[in-house]
Specification:
The structure holds two protein chains of two kinds. Chain A is mainly alpha-helical. Chain A contains two helices and no strands. The N and C termini of chain A lie far apart (38 Å). The model of chain B has no long low-confidence stretch (mean pLDDT 95). The chains are: A mainly alpha, B alpha/beta. The interface between A and B is medium-sized, with 22 and 26 residues. Bound molecules: iron/sulfur cluster (2 copies).
């Protein structure tokens, strides 16, 4: 993750969690907070491959 | 430094003659200046080919992978650390090796030197710390310290860390070196600037994979970039594909890279590929107190678990 941010991925866009299959509450909370954090950063404009242009 | 060569030849000849090794891996003159090439000597009468000077930047550990015969290998500081990596990673057996250690005073940056002259370079010789460059019939004297490869100028492990023979007295290691100024410079940038910086850095990349091939750490039989079923990363020169190759290559070197500079040296277009690995090296040092290839007695941090491993990135 450090290298990803080093090369310009915004902090917060890439997140890691450890969630056991029994931890449904944590799962839901994590999904919510990640979604919120990423929405706040806005759309990913950099690390995204442009569709191949066909003539 | 070139005084070492007599000792290297003498050692190579002795080891081949008495049958302690089947092959000696060292350097011989390349076909153009500043480009010594690896050579594989199998007969005592061939040792005259061997050379040693400031153009031996290729990492010879790269040629040891999975070899079965008994080999003597010429090893400067960084090569010896990659040999340690190879032994720890079961890529070669210690008892199959005779390590001819060379205390190293650094390798010169062929690209930097070529850039200092308008005309092609005809010859490069050296006399101690002076590099003599002949270009267009004119000889120019350069201080070796001014034209070192960047990783050599920053090196703090010039003496081999493991060896059976030594071709000269151990030398004083450089101290007080700020090894990670470049990493900090990039760290100080905003995400957009960082993105742009690496975009510009990688824009000349032709995906030739010379950087990967030169690296002793990259020994997988099929590299992830060459796989096609499944295809992990696009093979085009699309900037995103190129970037993906570069950061994944770097990750594969995490905790293993010795900053030998072979990758950077090999790149035909002069990309500073160490900008990726230096960051990982610095992080490894800060997080795990680890520098790769210094000891046979410790497992690398990325293949061990310790309860106090830093893990605040996992939420
Ligand atoms: S990544 Fe480059 S500097 Fe690091 S060990 Fe490989 S060739 Fe050497
Ligand atoms: S050696 Fe240079 S051009 Fe070739 S793949 Fe590596 S960075 Fe790209």
């Amino acid at each position: 993750m450090n290298l990803m941010e080093h090369m310009g991925i915004e902090p917060g866009r890439l997140q890691f969690s450890w969630i056991s299959s029994a931890e449904s509450t944590k799962f839901v909370e994590t999904v919510k907070s990640v979604t919120q954090a990423v929405k706040a950063i806005g759309p990913n404009t950099t690390y995204k491959k442009n569709p191949v242009k066909v003539a | 430094m070139s005084l070492y060569i007599d000792k290297i030849k003498e050692t190579a000849e002795r080891l081949l003659k008495d049958g302690s090794v089947d092959m000696v891996i060292g350097f011989r003159k390349g076909s153009v200046p500043m480009m010594n090439e690896p050579c594989f000597i199998q007969k005592p009468q061939e040792v005259h080919q061997l050379v040693w000077d400031s153009n031996c930047g290729i990492n010879l550990a790269n040629y040891l992978t999975d070899r079965k015969e008994k080999i003597a290998v010429v090893a400067k500081g960084c090569d010896s650390r990659n040999i340690v990596n190879h032994i720890v990673e079961n890529k070669i057996k210690r008892e199959k090796l005779v390590i001819i250690g060379v205390p190293c005073t650094g390798m010169i940056d062929k690209r930097k030197i070529a850039g200092m002259f308008d005309k092609p370079i005809d010859a490069v010789t050296e006399d101690g710390d002076i590099i003599l460059v002949t270009s267009a019939g004119k000889e120019t004297r350069l201080n070796k310290t001014d034209v070192l490869q960047e990783n050599c100028a920053l090196c703090i492990h010039r003496n081999p860390v493991i060896y059976d023979e030594l071709v000269g007295d151990l030398i004083e290691e450089q101290t007080g070196i700020d090894r990670y100024a470049e990493v900090r410079r990039v760290e100080a940038m905003s995400p957009q600037e960082k993105w742009q910086y690496f975009e510009d850095l990688l824009s000349p990349c032709i995906r030739c994979y010379a950087c990967r091939n030169a690296c002793p750490l990259c020994y997988c039989p099929t590299c992830f970039v060459d796989e096609s079923r499944p295809q992990w990363v696009g093979k085009s020169q699309d900037p995103i594909d190129t970037r993906t190759f570069h950061f994944l290559r770097a990750y594969h070197c995490a905790g293993r890279c010795t900053d030998c500079g072979a990758c950077e040296r090999a790149c035909p277009v002069g990309i500073k590929v160490r900008q990726f690995t230096s960051k990982l090296n610095r992080d490894c040092l800060e997080m795990f107190g680890w520098e790769a290839g210094l000891t046979l007695d410790q497992r690398p941090p990325l293949d061990t678990y310790k309860p106090n491993d830093p893990n605040d990135f996992i939420k």
